[in-house]
Amino acid sequence: MKLTLKIWRQKDAKSTGKFVTYPLDNISPNCSFLEMLDILNEQLIRKNEEPVVFDHDCREGICGMCSLYINGRPHGPDDAVTVCQLHMRKFSDGDTIVVEPWRAKPFPVVRDLMVDRSAFDRIIQEGGYISVNTGGAAEANNILVGKENAELAMDAAACIGCGACVAACKNASAMLFVSAKISQFALLPQGQVEAKQRVKKMVRMMDELGFGNCTNTYACEAECPKLISRSNIARMNREFMCAKVI
Amino acid sequence: MAELNSKIPKGPLTSKWTHYKDHQNLVNPSNKRKLDIIIVGTGLAGSAAAASLGEMGFNVKIFCYQDSPRRAHSIAAQGGINAAKNYPNDGDSIYRLFYDTIKGGDYRAREANVYRLAEVSNNIIDQCVAQGVPFAREYGGSLENRSFGGAQVSRTFFARGQTGQQLLLGSYGALSRQIKLGTVKLYNRHEMMDVVIVDGKARGIIARDLITGKLERHFGHAVIVATGGYGNVFYLSTNAMGSNTSAIWQIFKKGAWFANPCFTQIHPTCIPVHGDYQSKLTLMSESLRNDGRIWVPKRKEDAEAHRNGKLKANDIPEENRDYFLERRYPAFGNLVPRDVASRAAKERCDAGYGVGSTGLAVFLDFRESIGRLGKNVIEERYGNLFQMYEKIVDENPYVNPMMIYPAVHYTMGGTWVDYELQTTVTGLFAAGEANFSDHGANRLGASALMQGLADGYFVLPYTVQNYLAGEIRVARMPTDKAEFDEAEKAVQARLDKLMGIHGTRSVDHFHKELGKIMWEFVGMARNEAGLKKAIELIRQLRDDFWKDVKIPGTMNELNIELEKANRVADFLELGELLAFDALNRNESCGGHFREEYQTEEGECKRNDEDFKYVAAWEYVSEGQFKLHKEDLAYEEIEVKQRVYK
Amino acid sequence: MNLSFIRFSSITKKIWMAFLGLFLMIFLVVHLGINLCLLRDDGGAWFTAAAHFMGTNYIIKVFEIVLFAGFILHVFLGIVLQVQNWLARPVRYMVTNKTTTPFLSKYMIYTGGIVLVFLVIHFINFYFIKMGLVSNPNMTPEGEPDFYTIAIQLFSMPAYSLLYIVLFIVLGFHLNQAFQAAWQTLGVNHLQYNAFIRRFGIFYAIVVPLGFIIIPIYFLLIR
């Protein structure tokens, strides 16, 4: 395959960036998108240029590190996959591919296509857990969880924290990410004790960090590589209302 | 350095750990605040230890190279976590879990450590459920179990195919809570470059801020390394791209001996290599072997026709198929342990029966089970795996058989530790896959998560406290001490040297070359001549690397090539040690197979007389390692041959 | 206007938006009911009576204040949310987003804005007259503004009628997205009810604007 890549290059957080065009030839359609970038980097290094920096790690779609906005879609043109599992056969020979970093105020660009997503960590630190100390936990089967709720909790817990929801949302809202964690615990008996504090604190931090508001376009759900449902957002709204009112 | 002292507590096996806990030294709360602990790595072991020690009141600093602690590669574990809960009432017990683990490890693990692991396995499940980990449930609401390789009972707890992720998010939550409370400080996008030793004790690390490129000094009364395994020495593996050996290699050079490096696990069911550009191998859960049948063509011409794309798998008639696992191991069939299945597949491919464009693949066929159970049942059981396969390979596995090939998956070897998980350097601990302790020569499925969390939640909090009880009079040291100066200078010199090479070839080039050498000569089957050749080739490659590697950019900025170069430099040394160890171990056991030592049927031939020991290597100088042996005494278990026929 | 609204959490603002939106949707049905009186061939008797009732009844007068406040708040919050949303992405993408989203769901602020423009015109024509803010030559014998005559005059202008029709189509799209979004915001998202909510939303978004649209068509084409 022959491709033209337009990639955002930015030296560091303070510099202004720009798009740079790179032609690329002889790409196998069985190559993953990141392997295609590896090939580009190899060529850049050979030419004594600096390679394109992008986040990636596990390359099997679970760590949540890879984060590229490709031709107007987070994680590119395939559905329900992360960039690392996107393959070049989803593109056509001769395509021009524009690659941008996630864009959101709370996700500043670190370099090129790499952004800082520690905002997500800060939201989790506010209450994305159940406060139990190590040791002294009760016998596991003392806590019964109905299969239906256990499955729904697992659906929500499958979030990999990649930030595609924020990247896709026209408002850069983090509602899907936050609600997935809130939902997981709202559906489990273990999560009830701190439920009210949890939702209030996490939402406050989400707002403080400068994420946008949800306007129900459901772009987050459409782009989520793990198919997290927007029903989690509804559940979070419910939890939030109850926490505020009751 | 003195001989190895594994510090196993006295008394009967079943009460050693209780005895240890009852008699360990404690630190009072006001002193805990004055004690600093450095933890490197945020996987299951690292994050669980950081959370637990933070809760206890110690000051913890935790480091990871990723952007968030939640990215650690523990997250990729699919299958499950073992525990001896005996919920299905099928006769499981702590002893049985202990026994299966020792046997699965081919009698090369330390009894006392493994027994403790089995003992705390139940606490792990309790702890994780309390944290809200969404394990699979029965309709009645109780926890569900499934069976897994190498056991006759169902003792595996799981959260769909994402158990590792859910457990890691559990410990990441606990860690996040401590970060919020201020007991733990997180240093993300930081890489440990070296350990600092003051008066014979580990007292801190030199870390590099990967964003600014600056070197930092951090003091700790104790240092815990939980940086995972070294499978990426093979370049292609199921490990994450960033997984590396640098932390355990640097401490090795500073006196923390390295045990059993040759014990590496090759997982049989991975998606085969498809091209030179490939960066990573993807694992397909072992559970597929429950319903899939593994075969290759019986006739070489069929195999060749398939390789050339002239023949489709489905066009090969039943009588021309060789179900080689069922043929060789009628009792276990397709469910033989990982090492056995991997070697059998390699044997067929080497003999010229491999399929796929590269000839390095065998079929995993679901046609029969789809016929027997219906497509729906197969879809229910393996739907997500089939979908993943289709995304990557672009072939429908419901219609055409999958193609699989073994890949490097886990490393049983690692830093030598005693019963307290302390290395041969005082005050320096190693946990999780980074240490060698619990899996012997082969790890059973669903045991890695168990070990990581056992070390982090239930072992280190006790043993580290026991060590720190003797350190309460040691005040925090300023980091401008001579030892810190020296360590930082050495790191700086190494980075300067790397940046100063200005060669012609990329880091990846060398890493791929190393991988090829390792896979060919130190991979699934090894022999003396090959290992000697490997050592020679690795040395040569290392020389080339230090002469010819090309790293663009500068040191004082985010420089991904420099990061990689620094890691590959260590792999280039570790690879040699791995080959050394494999050469030394004149036997076949578990993941280590020496062609000279096999039975007539081509099975592992262990040599308990001469090799029933842990090989702990001491670093002398580059390419020079000194062997120390820790004899393995089995008091509870009778050592037997593993038979799967 | 109390500006502490700006500092409300994002979800609180959203919930207010949803409540107010649903409230306005109820009002719209009442308004439609009155407007449909125009279609009666009674010289505007029913319509004038309804207008008289709406203009004089004390309960209605109280509700009028609530309605007006609710309306302003809905608009105000919409603008605040939108500004915050713009600020949340200071650097835009070069390639506009290609994610598949429900029709026009991304453009609520614009459909809302268009409806607002119409409402301003509408207020000038009717509501401000009632308030006495705009002079008006058409009076009933009782001394109240003669809305029936005003309406008929307006609808007899093809340009006005056309504008009116287009704006109600836009309102329809706004309402279609708004109805199910409001319930989602209020936390009602359940497999059992989602289909009903969606269908009812579509039904409402078609029937109510259509009801309004019939009137100018009637005046332009039939009468």
CATH class of the domain at 482-631 in chain B: Mainly Alpha
Poorly predicted runs of chain C are: none
End-to-end separation of chain C in angstroms reads 45 Å
Q: What characteristic shape of chain B results from the CA principal axes?
A: globular
Strand percentage of chain C lies at under 5%
Please give the largest β-sheet of chain C. none
Secondary-structure-derived class of chain B: alpha+beta
Provide the fold topology:
The complex is a heterotrimer of chains A (246), B (645) and C (223).
Chain A: E1 3-9, E2 18-24, H1 33-46, E3 69-70, E4 73-74, E5 96-100, E6 109-111, E7 114-115, H2 118-125, H3 147-157, H4 164-168, H5 175-186, H6 195-208, H7 219-223, H8 231-245
Parallel strand pairs in A: 1-5
Antiparallel strand pairs in A: 1-2, 3-4, 3-5, 6-7
Helix pairs in contact in A: 2-6, 3-5, 5-6, 5-8, 6-8
Chain B: H1 16-23, H2 29-32, E1 36-40, H3 44-56, E2 59-63, E3 81-82, H4 94-104, H5 111-130, E4 156-157, H6 163-181, E5 184-187, E6 190-198, E7 201-209, E8 215-219, E9 222-225, H7 246-253, E10 258-259, E11 264-270, E12 293-297, H8 300-307, E13 321-322, H9 324-328, H10 338-353, E14 362-365, H11 367-373, H12 375-393, E15 402-411, E16 414-415, E17 428-430, H13 448-468, H14 482-499, H15 507-521, H16 528-548, H17 560-584, H18 608-611, E18 613-621, E19 624-631
Parallel strand pairs in B: 1-2, 1-9, 2-5, 9-17
Antiparallel strand pairs in B: 3-4, 6-7, 7-8, 10-16, 10-18, 11-15, 12-13, 12-14, 14-15, 18-19
Chain C: H1 10-36, H2 45-56, H3 58-87, H4 108-131, H5 147-155, H6 158-185, H7 191-222
Helix pairs in contact in C: 1-3, 1-6, 1-7, 4-6, 6-7
